[in-house]
Amino acid sequence: MAKPPAGMRADARRNHERLVSEARAAFAEYGADASLEDVARRAGVGIGTLYRHFPNRHALLSAVFADAVSDLLDLSSELLDDPQPCTALVAWLRAIITHAGEYRGLSRALMAASHDEASALARCSGPMREAGSRLLARAQQAGAVRPDVSIVDLLQLTNAIALAAEETPGDPELADRLLTLTLRGLKI
Asked: Which range among 28-32, 91-95, 104-108, 127-131 shows the weakest confidence by mean pLDDT?
C-alpha cells in the first residue's frame, strides 16, 4: 500500500491509509471517476480531510496506483534479463494494459495526465517511462523494433488499447488483438 508521508501524526496516518484503501475499493467498483465525497464517507472522514491529504483526484489516483506502479517497475527490471528483448517489451506492455483495465477510467486519466507534468499522476509515469525506455532500447538494439518508436508513444498506445477494451466489455480478446496489431507496426 502507498505509504503516508513521513512524520505524519498517527491519526493522520490512519486517515491517509483508510482514504487510500477506500479509494482503491471505490475506483475498482465505480471507476476512476468515483465520487470523492463517497470515498471520504467510506473512510469515515470529511471531504476536507480527503483534500488535506490529496489535493485533487490525480493525487489520490497516484496514491492508489503506487503499488501497481511499483509492481510494473519490478517487472521491467526482471524483464531486462530476458534473452528476447522484444518478447520482454511485449510482456511489459501487456502487464500495463492489464493493470489499466483493473480500474474503469484509469486509462483516460493517465492519458490526460500525460499532458500535465505537474500532475501527481503524471509524476508516476516518469519512472514508468524510464523503465519502458530501457526495455524499448534493448528491443531496438536487437533490431526487433523500429528506431523511430518512442516510449511515450508506446505508453499512449497501451492506454488507448486499455481504453478501447474498457469501452468494449463484450469482447475480452480486443486488447490482445489491438496490441498484436500495434506491435506488428513497430517491427522493422
From this structure: 104-108
Nearest C-alpha neighbor of 98 from the set 34, 1, 172: 172
What phi and psi, each to the nearest 5 degrees, are found at residue 92? -70, -45
Cα 69 to Cα 110: distance, rounded to the nearest angstrom: 12
CA distance 96 to 68: 9
CA-based nearest residue to 22, from 38, 4, 10, 2? 38
Give the span between the Cα atoms of 85 and 94, in whole angstroms: 14
Distance CA 102, CA 110 (A): 13
Instruction: Please tell me the predicted confidence (pLDDT) of residue 106.
Output: 73
What whole-number distance in Å separates Cα of residue 181 and Cα of residue 141? 22
| Gyration radius from the chain CA atoms | 18
Residue 97 has pLDDT above 70, yes or no: yes
What is the residue-averaged pLDDT of the chain?
A: 88
